[in-house]
Amino acid sequence: MTSSKLWRASAAILCLTLVAASCGRDDKSTAATTTVKGGEASTAAFIDPAKDCKEGYDATKGITGNEILVGTVRPTSGPYAIYDTVTKGVEKYFEAQNAKGGIKAGDGKTYTVKLAKGDDGYDPAKTPGVVQGLVETDGIFAMVGEIGTETNLAVREYMNKKCIPSIALATGSPEWGSNNTSPWYIAGLPSYATEARAFMDYLKTTNPKATIAVVYQNDDFGKAYLGAIKKFVASEAPDMKVVAEQPYDPASGQTTEGVTTQVAASKADVFFIGIGGTQCPKTMTFIPADWTPLVYASITCSGKLALSLAGGKDEGIYTAQATLDAGAPSDANNPKVLQFIADGKSVGLTDAELQGGIVGAGWNFAALFAEALGKTPKVTRADIMNTIWQLDKLNFGLMRDEAEASTDNEKDAWPLEGLRIVQRKAGDWVEVAPLKDYNGQSNSFAG
After folding, report:
1. Which helix (H) or strand (E) segment is 388 a member of?
2. For residue 49, which of 4, 53, 177, 185 is within the disulfide window of CB 3.0 to 4.6 Å?
3. DSSP element (H, E) containing 63
């Protein structure tokens, strides 16, 4: 997902977390404990708590009997409050599994999962205190589906030093590719750089001389898109050109109308919207009538609920997909979607929530945690992370049927690297480029 530059006075905290990459870990460290790859035992574990954890590592903190307490942090107010619906997806997934008796882990036991929630308002200055409360007061086992790029960056050093898993981060910042120095963090979205690359690959085949205008969120979220686009143009598409770029600061309290008008003056062939939250779909409403570019919108605002804010201007836009969309007629009869709808309704989710796209994202984050739990031979913090770092062609949750999630210790930090390009037509998504697997390449796309 996205994150704002709220409260600029917190810059010192952010800078500290960005540069403190070592997180108490020798980046050449490997372990000999057992993990799982493709369902089979393996000794190629990535994390060794005896070497990597120096601050009172508690392997099973948060586990009481057969209950596991996990945590998450999200905003409940402001321009990004729409993403609180992600957390509802996480919570309802666990409720649905608990109602079925729980999740059977690799150790043979069946666990129920309880979710503790914190609210940081998408303010990275508040995130450390909120996370510290979940870790040190509530005593969570792991974090699941925590929302935001800079908010996660604000606690990355703390979580890695404490050796607490942060699983399925609700952000695709290229920052999460540095798993060799931040081994307790793994994203639940594709890298934003890979998303941009998938679209640029498509654009190169359809308009190799395209001129591109970009409006981007002025933080690590938006800059990831812009950097990947510029890198592709420089190295792969010399006939393309970025002719206009404008940053947007969510903390300004303004809309994106001004920056959209500025880039529209370029009359570029392509308009790339690298913004999240409600301003992403609203940006579509500010496109002048005399400018008709191909419009690409961030994967984070491509759900039915977000696009309902586009005032009908979402018709014809493009985006990327790694997962099924329960709100798209073309995916409605997929068995995974039908199971998602049935399970979601059983725990009180409405049709609007189930089809909106945002609940589905959270559902998928929780599903990744459940898959790791099911494959972990021993339910400890280190073992569940080592399991995640050895995923081998896994398909889970609402992933598209042709997609495969793989990781490879320090070599590949991204489970979701298969993306297809789609176009919005009459309330549905129509494939214009089939899913392509960028397995192991995501870090190379970052600008």
Report:
1. helix 381-388
2. 53
3. strand 63-64
